[in-house]
């Protein structure tokens, strides 16, 4: 079925990530081995055709002719067995696998920026990102802590959150790609208020405005009456009270070692964690390839894999595409209603 004859499905920009990593091969596998995605979205790669052709040939053992360039997403036919690419920048086919490359880091950032420009122009309905390498991106001249901050900059938003999701479970993060010392200082009243409002808006947009939101304490035992620090009592508890007064059903702060297992077992659907590893470590330990990374607070849906570039196995043909397939599926599911998520996140009320 061609794009002209199939029912309307969201067009997704799949950014290729760092071409020295596993991005090209998992992208190729996702688009060549999972034809079912074509019925729910029109995936168009934003990246480098030569890097994809190399992965198709050397890693998958297929004909490089399956990779075709298109001028713009609207030109994509969405034919199964074909990878359609909007070329961004010069060829990166020379970049070796498994080595940190400024060229690859520059390309990975530019792929994301091009996808954001296409989204702002209304040419794509969502963005799905393969992993980039932060050190390579910095070496390439783009000094962002990670994907999330780059995306926020490109869309001009200040209130956003990295959200890990598996099924109907969502872990929002107060801080992410900073040192633990900076994370502690970064958890202030303004940031906590903003994220709790964001979670409440997101829950409302998903049809669960009264769903309880578990807020993890920063310190062991959520500070235990200031025995283990003052941040829980001085910052988190007042923020929870303000959120509740505003109609957001926040609860806490609660000891993280109790809250997170309860969430995994179904007691909590929405959880707020304080720093990167407080959320990422248990989430990845439990869900692995069954999890994705969603950025809430952007005007279009963005979903990513929840793993890195895996330089150590790049080009060996053993990388699994499961998380990228799931990311594309989740983006396709969320894209049609994302305008409501964006409006409620932006204004605090459904439109």
TrEMBL record:
Signal peptide: none
Pfam families xrefs: PdxA
Keyword Aminoacyl-tRNA synthetase (UniProt): no
Broad EC category: oxidoreductase
Record carries keyword Metal-binding: yes
Enzyme Commission (EC) number: 1.1.1.262
Keywords (A to Z) from UniProt: Metal-binding, NAD, Oxidoreductase
GO MF annotation list: 4-hydroxythreonine-4-phosphate dehydrogenase activity
InterPro entries linked: PdxA_fam
Family of the protein in this entry: Belongs to the PdxA family. PdxA2 subfamily.
PANTHER family named among the record's database cross-references: 4-HYDROXYTHREONINE-4-PHOSPHATE DEHYDROGENASE, D-THREONATE 4-PHOSPHATE DEHYDROGENASE
Name of the protein in question: 4-hydroxythreonine-4-phosphate dehydrogenase PdxA
Organism ancestry: Bacteria, Bacillati, Actinomycetota, Actinomycetes, Pseudonocardiales
Gene name in the database record: pdxA
């Amino acid at each position: 079925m061609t794009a002209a004859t199939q029912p309307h499905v969201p067009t997704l920009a799949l950014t290729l990530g760092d071409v020295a990593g596993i991005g090209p091969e998992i992208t190729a596998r996702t688009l060549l081995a999972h034809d079912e995605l074509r019925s729910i979205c029109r995936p168009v790669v934003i990246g480098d055709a030569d890097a994809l052709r190399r992965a198709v040939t050397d890693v998958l053992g297929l004909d490089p002719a399956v990779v075709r360039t298109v001028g713009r997403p609207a030109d994509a036919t969405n034919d199964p067995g074909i990878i359609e690419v909007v070329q961004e920048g010069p060829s990166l086919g020379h970049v070796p696998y498994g080595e940190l490359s400024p060229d690859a880091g520059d390309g990975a950032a530019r792929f994301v920026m091009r996808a954001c420009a296409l989204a702002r122009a209304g040419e794509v309905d969502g963005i799905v990102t393969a992993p980039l390498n932060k050190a390579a991106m910095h070496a390439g001249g783009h000094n962002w802590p990670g994907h999330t901050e780059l995306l926020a900059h490109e869309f001009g938003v200040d209130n956003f959150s990295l959200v890990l999701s598996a099924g109907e479970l969502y872990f929002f993060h107060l801080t992410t790609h900073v040192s633990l010392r900076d994370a502690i200082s970064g958890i202030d009243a303004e940031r906590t208020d903003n994220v709790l409002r964001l979670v409440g808006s997101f829950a409302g947009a998903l049809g669960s405005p009264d769903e309880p939101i578990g807020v993890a304490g920063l310190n062991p035992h959520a500070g235990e009456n200031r025995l283990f620090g003052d941040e829980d009592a001085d910052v988190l508890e007042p923020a929870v009270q303000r959120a509740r007064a505003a109609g957001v059903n926040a609860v806490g702060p609660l000891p993280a070692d109790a809250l997170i297992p309860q969430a995994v077992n179904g007691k909590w659907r929405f959880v707020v964690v304080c720093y990167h590893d407080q959320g990422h470590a248990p989430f990845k330990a439990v869900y692995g390839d069954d999890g994705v990374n969603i950025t809430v607070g952007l005007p279009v849906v963005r979903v990513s894999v929840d793993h890195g570039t895996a330089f150590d196995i790049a080009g060996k043909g053993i990388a699994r595409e499961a998380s990228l397939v799931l990311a594309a599926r989740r983006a396709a599911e969320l894209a049609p209603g994302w305008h409501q998520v964006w409006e409620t996140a932006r204004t605090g009320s459904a439109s």
